[in-house]
Amino acid sequence: MIKKFLIVFFVSMIPLIELRGAVPIGLSTAFGEALPIIPLYIICILGNMIPVPLIFFFARKILVWGSDKKFIGKFFKFCLEKGEKGGKKLQEKTGRSVYVALFLFVGIPLPGTGAWTGTLAASLLDLDFKKSVIAIMAGVVLAGIIMGLASAGVFGALGAFLN
Length: 163
Prior knowledge:
Blueprint: H1 2-11, H2 18-27, H3 37-49, H4 51-66, H5 73-94, H6 98-107, H7 115-124, H8 129-151, H9 154-162
Helix pairs in contact: 1-2, 1-3, 2-3, 2-8, 3-8, 4-5, 4-7, 5-7, 6-7, 6-8, 7-8
């Protein structure tokens, strides 16, 4: 059981997979028996949140540093410009509710909308660290609940019931 907890902990740290992939792994019987739901969520949330401060404080610096390098410069510059342009549009549309938008962006489990991407966006927008972490963590919890329900077949059962 400890081995499976470690697997879901490290899977929840991987960009693009994050908690969204770790919860179904923890609930499945593919790597042994399914994990208890509360400890599974705690481990997945911790694993998903550990990279957040590193991304928030260093991503912009790394992108700026790499933007004038020979092989990676174009890509890093593209990321900076795209992030800043998108961030400005988002702030104009959401105004003071930018943290609600960040929460929803992270919380709705679609490809490319997890804690890594949300944190990068918050960093590029120069948002408040504490408020960003709260919004991102709330989004991670929401994504975990949605993935847990989806893994348990609740959405399939609701769909069959409504048809």
